[in-house]
Amino acid sequence: MSAIDDLPPLREVIRRHELSAKKSLGQNFLLDLNLTARIARAAGPLEGVDVVEIGPGPGGLTRALLAQGARRVIAVERDERAIGALEEIAARYPGRLAIVAGDALAFDPRRHVGGAPARVVANLPYNIATALLVNWLTLEPWPPWYDRLVLMFQREVAERIVALPGSKAYGRLAVLAGWRSEARILFDIAASAFVPPPNVTSSLVSLIPRANPLACERRTLEQVTQAAFGQRRKMLRQSLKSLGRDPQALLATAGIDPTARAEDVAVAGFVALARALTGQSASRRA
Ligand code: SAM
Fold first, then answer.
1. What is the rounded CA–CA span in Å between residue 59 and residue 96?
2. pLDDT at 43 exceeding the cut of 70
3. Residues 280-283: contacts with CB under 8 Å, at least 24 apart
4. Residue 194: what are its φ and ψ, rounded to 5°?
5. Bridge partners of 191?
6. Which residue from 20, 63, 120, 162 puts its CA 20 to 30 A from 168's CA?
7. Cβ atoms of 160 and 174 closer than 8 Å
């Protein structure tokens, strides 16, 4: 029995299902159910909410999400060895845990959610964490199918997501995250909380999608940030030459100082540049 339910402790689950952690699958398990409960609480009230969990592993966070009242958890796990452990949790919470055996990168939750608010809560495998986040932030149509992402990242990645202009961590990821969401770090988790411990501290990040992000074409915005941050030490009048248009004219239309560098420009500035590139008027919203 554990602190949050009547299922066995996670160490026992791992032993019985021979779930020794595999580095290739980014496996760093959280075995402290008080900690997984804290993460689930940080995801906000879960009653009536469908939660998509990526990489449930032995199910510590899954159990916390269910114990905290999630209407359903849709758990996507690539490691076949974990499926038996997850089936035991599904039996304890009939009809509330859907186990999807497969690759999260190829998984479209839209077939599984609908009719209730949906949220992603996950201790992500770090090798695909940024790719998953970019997928969720570039969904079309927008607003997306989820009302919030609550995700564990390496601290360094978390800092790149929430970074503000003028900081070293500010780059393409911060612009994308800031354009489409309100992102913030909720709290850090020491490496020692994981089994095995990773080399770095982790941070739990909350991203709430903006209902009306500033209007611009997502691909054009990416084109602009790629050019600007691809040569981040150069002035924009130089770095934007790779866009194949007169950078001075683009910068003038966007109202940006041509001697500024990428890291000085706020999200709204990049949106203005993307709009200048596509010839959109400045007043339209998405
Ligand atoms: N949620 C568990 C916890 O907190 O203890 C495990 C987290 S562990 C950091 C990442 C999990 O993601 C592992 O269970 C791993 O097998 C799974 N995983 C790795 N790559 C995956 C992929 N491409 N699709 C789905 N799950 C994956």
1. 14
2. yes
3. 280/215, 280/216, 280/217
4. -100, 155
5. none
6. 120
7. yes
Q: What SS3 state is found at 206?
A: strand
Q: Would you tell me how many other CB atoms lie within 10 Å of the CB of residue 55?
A: 24
Which residues form the pocket of ligand 1, taking CB atoms under 6 Å from any ligand atom? 25-30, 54-57, 60-61, 76-79, 82, 103-105, 123, 125, 128
Structure tokens at 219: 């691909």
- pTM of the shown model: 0.96
Strands 29-30 and 194-195: antiparallel
Phi, psi of 101 (to 5 degrees): -90, 110
Percent pLDDT > 70 in the chain is: 97
> How far, CA to CA in Å, does 143 sit from each of 50, 137, 181, 211, 280?
17, 10, 10, 6, 21
Q: What is the pLDDT of residues 108-143, one digit of tens each?
A: 999 999 889 999 999 999 999 999 999 999 999 999
Is residue 180 a contact partner of residue 137, using CB atoms and an 8 Å limit? yes
* pLDDT score, position 283: 42
- pLDDT per residue as tens digits for the range 138-181: 999 999 999 999 999 999 999 999 999 999 999 999 999 999 99
Task: Give residue 75 CA to ligand 1 midpoint distance, Å.
Answer: 10
**Does the pLDDT value for residue 239 go beyond 70?**
yes
What residue owns the CA closest to ligand 1's atom 12? 55
Please tell me the distance between residue 7's alpha carbon and the centre of ligand 1 in angstroms.
20
From ligand 1's centre to the CA of 196, what distance in Å? 13
